[in-house]
Design goal:
Layout: H1 2-28, E1 31-45, E2 61-71, E3 75-81, E4 89-90, E5 97-98, E6 114-128, E7 132-142, H2 149-159, H3 161-170, E8 182-184, E9 205-206, E10 219-220, E11 223-226, E12 229-232, E13 235-240, H4 241-248, E14 258-264, E15 272-281
Parallel strand pairs: 4-5
Antiparallel strand pairs: 1-6, 1-15, 2-3, 2-7, 7-10, 7-13, 8-13, 9-12, 11-12, 14-15
Length: 282
């Protein structure tokens, strides 16, 4: 009996030491808090809202923010879901912020406009080397009619979060410091897609509308022709401790830690916008 109690005691102490060792090891891993913000955008080309622009001068836009923190031990946690858009920019009234020069007196976004915005926080959390990564999606939406596409976008984000987690955590292996920052949504995310075929996953689709210039709906910029409709191709910013640290210390021509993400529509929809995003290590 005493020998069994002694054996159980030894096993308990051994297990406790393993737990403490794992805890100390985890705490010893390099970690830092990072902040990612959108602070500027440029209208490379104004969108064609539909055959007849009826809702004011130029474009009027808002931003969707998605942030998911992935951890190889504990799974994924959504920090922002992308459904609640930011206040709008464009002609004022009715938009919250006056932006652009389509109308001399009221604004509205047109080709060539460059707009500084109050910093929009996309992500602010801790990244742990070798253990966690973040998926961040900043998209720009042209506000032109009914909003049901936002619900379709929400469904896409929910259904494909496991694929985003898989790809993000894969950056922790094999030179994480040089892992690509920006990824187009393609067949590398859809784990059941045959290698070498174009991605056909429906994200957000838009019909042709009047004269084939797109249905009048609030929609994301960056929609491409696929079959008989237009499909949105998101651009995912995937950060881990190493590539985020490197990006925060790099100047690619727009400032320290600044990267550019460009969304380009099919030529019939015409929209083309560049987002300026800053990565800071706090």
């Amino acid at each position: 009996m005493k020998s069994k109690l002694w054996l159980l005691t030894i096993m308990f102490l051994f297990s406790l030491n393993l737990i403490l060792f794992d805890s100390e090891k985890a705490n010893a891993q390099p970690r830092a808090r990072f902040e990612v913000s959108l602070f500027r955008f440029h209208v490379n080309r104004q969108s064609l809202e539909n055959a007849v622009e009826f809702n004011g001068a130029g474009d009027e836009v808002s931003f969707s923010r998605v942030a998911i923190l992935h951890n190889r031990r504990t799974g994924s946690r959504a920090l922002s879901d992308g459904i609640n858009l930011t206040p709008s920019f464009g002609e004022q009234p009715p938009n919250t912020f006056r932006a652009g020069h389509a109308s001399p007196s009221h604004g509205g976004l047109k080709t060539g406009d460059d707009v500084l915005v109050p910093p929009i926080i996309l992500f602010s959390d801790e990244l742990i080397q070798g253990e966690s990564a973040a998926t961040i999606i900043a998209s720009i939406w042209e506000l032109d009619g009914p909003t049901e596409l936002r619900r379709n976008y929400e469904n896409f984000l929910f259904n494909f979060q496991p694929d985003m987690e898989r790809v993000a955590l894969a950056t922790l292996r094999n030179a994480p410091a040089t892992a690509s920052l920006v990824h187009d949504w393609d067949n590398s995310f859809t784990s059941n897609s045959p290698v070498g075929t174009p991605n056909t996953t429906t994200v957000v689709t838009l019909g042709d509308g009047f004269l084939g210039l797109g249905a009048a709906k609030a929609r994301p910029i960056g929609m491409v022709r696929q079959g008989n409709s237009y499909n949105f191709i998101p651009k995912l910013l995937i950060l881990n401790f190493d590539n985020a640290s490197r990006a925060a210390e790099t100047n690619q021509g727009s400032g320290l830690g600044v990267i550019k993400i460009t969304y380009t529509d099919d030529q019939k929809l015409a929209g083309d916008y560049t987002l300026f995003i800053k990565i800071r290590r706090l």
